[in-house]
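Sample A.
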Amino acid sequence: MRVCALSMDALSKGRTPMDRRDFLIAGACAAALGGAQALKPRRMVNLLDGPELDPVIPRKFGRWTTDFDTEIVAPKVPGSLEDKLYSEIVSHTFRDTAGKLPSVMLLIAYGRSQSDLLQLHRPESCYPAVGFSISNRKLIDMSLPKGQNLPAVEMTATAGDRVEDIVYWSRLGEFFPQTAGQQRRDRLKAAMQGYVGDGALVRASTLRGADNNTPYFPALQSFFGDLVQGMPNAQRKVLIGTDRAKALA
């Protein structure tokens, strides 16, 4: 802003050969300042009703159940990347009570502020960072109860003999970006609308043997449908957004 101040001062002192350049610089600075003010968030939008997410995730729904002694415990380390990115990480392992489907690992990473500095980390980046290769990646419209669809991603992560099928989606405010580019676009949209939204990355995965060539994507999508249906009516929006939650109600 010092350049702008000097330029405006020069304009006020009379005409010089530099008047036109000073005027252009001052105009550019004013435009930049106006743009920055327009993009400055003026409010926060959080779809989580209450201080914590974990209590609203059911332990039993549909054909699925989880036992407290089998839950995954992943405490945040103060100052770690997870601690900076997310307000809460919920992680449980569910088993099929009929014994026909493999166990499903559910992980929900929730952040109250999805700004430029704090944003969801997508599995396409996290898994390769620890040695997994990605295949079968596809953008999907996942079916939910009552004819609702949700933008999601399915993919397979492989490292040695470990084959993990994954279905996940990300919510940023009321947006559901399926790619990193869409996520950046939607953050900008939210900023232009004057708010910073909370965010959630909801991931379910299951393991299969390396000799099994059939991914478990349909089972994982069915799991998510049961999960959403089993949640308290007023709390579904934290995972699937306000409009879909109202439709399911």
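Sample B.
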Amino acid sequence: MEDNNRRNQPQYDDEISLVDLATTFLKRRRVFYAVLFSTLLAGIAYAVLMPERYDYVSLVKLAEKDSGSYIEKPAAIIATLENRWLPDYQSTYHAEHDGSIPFKVRFENPENTGLIRMVSEASPSQRESIKQVHAQLIDELSQAQSAAVSSLKQNLERQIESLSSTIKMLEGSTDAGAAIAAAFEKRLSLEATLNSMRPMEVLTVSRESAERKGPARSLIVLLAGLLGLMGGVFLAFLTEFASMVKAQMSES
């Protein structure tokens, strides 16, 4: 009965064994080596010749009205930088150089701070150009901040002067004690705000990041090796398949 079952089982002549795969691979190993080494060499060349790029960062601290409170909101400053001062500079640059600025400038506000970061990614050869652009934008921001500080100071000084006059007028009244106390308290609050005001501070201009941007050279070489390995195996078997098809067509 068992012999009959064995005879009835279908025989598959087209099955491929691991030995067949290994034989085919060894037969076409030159194709594998050629693809692997050419891809690896291309990856090494790209990693070596890839231009270095760094982040160049400028950092300013906005003018403070008092501790943790800023005369102008960071979001409003960034909107002005993105939609007014940077486009104005881009127009001037295009008119002078007949081309666009060869790098981008992005603006960030770290959460819960009054800091504005200007960041540009470029090669070291463009550092001076980045410094010039950042310095121009910082100058525009500085002028706007100085004007805002001056305006707020004048407003506070006028209010303090008005309160002082009001206090003098009320001092002659017998029943104005509560009003005088309220005026004194308000004047002290305004004076404290005036004394705690701080101008905008430039912390750094176009500082180069410590680490290079982009993938590491070792990672590029590793990926090239993996790509060459997979591509070499695939092309080795594809070459053998094409050879077998060609041989069968020539026989027929």
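B remarks: DSSP finds seven helices and six strands in the chain. The mean pLDDT is 85.
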